[in-house]
UniProtKB/TrEMBL annotation:
This is histidine kinase. Its EC number is 2.7.13.3. InterPro entries: HAMP_dom, HATPase_C_sf, HATPase_dom, His_kinase_dom, HisK_dim/P_dom, HisK_dim/P_sf, HssS/ArlS-like, Sig_transdc_His_kin-like_C. PROSITE patterns: HAMP, HIS_KIN, PROKAR_LIPOPROTEIN. It comes from the Bacteria. It is found in: Cell membrane. It is an enzyme of class 2 (transferase). Keywords: ATP-binding, Cell membrane, Kinase, Membrane, Nucleotide-binding, Phosphoprotein, Transferase, Transmembrane, Transmembrane helix, Two-component regulatory system. GO terms for cellular component: plasma membrane. One of its GO terms (molecular function) is ATP binding. Gene3D superfamilies: 1.10.287.130, 6.10.340.10, Histidine kinase-like ATPase, C-terminal domain. The keyword ATP-binding applies. It comes from Acididesulfobacillus acetoxydans. Residues 201-253 form the HAMP domain.
Length: 503
């Protein structure tokens, strides 16, 4: 449920339910009063009471508006008696303490009681008259008394007592209103407590789970999943926090991988540099100790030192290039290049060296027409040289054969470099493009940085392509390079690198 809708519903329930409950209590009380009293119900008594008060007020107004001498006239007295007769009321006019007119025969004691009650009602005021004076029994009937004081024409003091039967009023009005007020207050309090409990539970329970999960994450447990629960807004918060947890977990995993790679890099560099450095130290010590005591030996030792130094230089160059490629700091300069001509040039540049190693290199093209590719010529040449170098290292046949095969698919152009060397074990094929990985074929493990194919992979991916290997141990290996046709779909990081001019 939406949190805003839940708030609105809770506020509405907190008011409407108590109001509805109070209305039901009022209806029940009215029904029960009518059933128990047999007087037509509390509402009908309210109407009778209102009618009686209206008649009394009308009569009082007539008295106050009439001249004092009119009160002594029989016609006016009959008028007052007729007004009150409809509600069962009576009229008593008193002059100097003596009854001047009475619509009903009352004794002196009864009149005295009525005068006393009338004085109390007049002193209390209209609103509190009934409660101040209370009912007065006169002639066997309980009356409420309303007194109007006046001065007769001869200066005498007098009063007009307006009497209404007490059974026409509603004695339980105050209690009824008090009951309704108490019902509303109790139901309002109870409903608010219930709404607060339900509403707070729907919010506090998910927040409590979030707090517990956050505590687990802060202790390093990034596998603690954040469940979606609660209202829509809280579920959205849970989803965002879960995405944040996943990204944090991925970043920690990536950082750990980087740390492992760093350790492996240091270990591999140390191991790979140790061999040529040890050789250089050995030959230098041989020269210093006089072991190389002839010019021929000294020249041989110096040539070996030079070769080892070049190996170290090549390893450092490969390492720096791989680091730059890995950080996408190498710009690519793409040019439209004819694929077949480019491979022929590459073959011509390496043909003499391969022939010296007794390896034959050829080009086989299966293209239906000339195909131009967007290539960084220098970088792609590094890829092909690294692939050829790897094929030469693991060539165990004489004569060796390396074939460049050029073909295409609907979406890409494929360059296959196939050799008939020792091949690569099936379990090693997916790993040969990892840095520092070298397949340990028996008797054929060669020295090198272990970065050649890893660099090739970075460069091919920088061209928007893909590189992989297929082959069979003892038969040979094929390195497949797939390059997109048309414009190169560059990775954004390579584009930024080129625009920044990084190198």
């Amino acid at each position: 449920m939406n949190l805003k809708w839940r708030l609105s519903s809770a506020n509405a329930l907190a008011v409407l339910v108590p109001v509805g409950f109070t209305v039901l209590v009022a209806l029940a009380c009215l029904f029960l009063y009518g059933q128990l009293s047999g007087s037509g119900g509390l509402w009908s008594n309210y109407q009778k009471m209102a009618e009686a008060h209206s008649v009394v007020l009308s009569s009082e107004k007539s008295i106050l508006q009439a001249a004092p001498e009119a009160v002594e006239k029989a016609a006016f007295q009959q008028h007052l008696q007729d007004n009150l007769a409809g509600i069962g009321g009576e009229v008593v006019i008193v002059k100097n303490g003596e009854p001047l007119f009475s619509s009903r025969s009352f004794g002196k004691i009864a009149i005295a009681k009525l005068l006393e009650a009338g004085k109390a009602a007049s002193a209390a005021g209209p609103a509190e008259a009934a409660s101040a004076a209370g009912p007065v029994e006169a002639g066997g009937i309980d009356y409420e008394v309303r007194q109007v004081n006046l001065r007769f024409r001869d200066g005498s003091q007098g009063s007009v007592l307006l009497l209404t039967p007490f059974d026409q009023a509603v004695p339980a009005l105050g209690a009824f209103l008090l009951l309704l007020g108490a019902s509303f207050a109790v139901s309002f309090l109870a409903m608010n407590l219930w709404v607060s409990f339900r509403f707070s539970r729907s919010i506090l329970s998910p927040l409590s789970h979030l707090r517990q999960t956050a505590a687990e994450i802060s202790r390093g447990n990034l596998d603690c999943r954040i469940a979606e629960e609660g209202d829509e807004e809280i579920q959205a918060l849970c989803r965002d926090l879960e995405r944040m947890r996943i990204k944090l977990k991925d970043s920690v995993h990536t950082r750990m991988q980087y740390e492992d790679n760093r350790k492996m890099l240091i270990s591999s560099i140390s191991h790979d540099l140790q061999t040529p450095v040890t050789s250089i130290k050995g030959y230098v010590e041989g020269i210093l100790d006089g072991v190389a005591n002839t010019p021929a030996k000294q020249e041989k030792y110096l040539q070996t030192i030079h070769v080892k130094a070049e190996q170290i230089d090549q390893m450092i160059e490969d390492l720096l290039l791989y680091a730059k490629l890995d950080l996408h700091q190498v710009p690519f300069n793409f040019e439209k290049t004819d694929a077949e001509d480019y491979l022929r040039d590459c073959i011509e540049e390496n043909e003499a060296e391969l022939a010296r190693r007794q390896i034959e290199i050829t080009l086989q093209t299966d293209l239906a027409q000339r195909r131009e590719l967007l290539l960084d010529r220098e970088r792609m040449k590094r890829v092909l040289v690294n692939v050829l170098d790897n094929a030469c290292k693991y060539m165990n046949k004489t004569p060796g054969k390396i074939t460049f095969i050029l073909r295409e698919t609907p979406a890409s152009t494929i360059v296959e470099v196939r050799d008939n060397g020792a091949g690569i074990p099936a379990q090693d094929l997916p790993r040969i493009f990892d840095r520092f990985f070298r397949s340990d074929l028996s008797g054929l493990r060669k020295n090198g940085s272990g970065l050649g194919l890893a660099i090739a992979k970075q460069i091919v991916e920088g061209h928007g392509g893909r590189i992989w290997a297929v082959g069979e141990e003892g038969v040979g290996t094929s390195i497949m390079i797939s390059l997109p046709k048309g414009p190169v779909s560059l990775r954004p990081d390579f584009v930024r690198s080129k625009e920044a001019g990084g190198g």
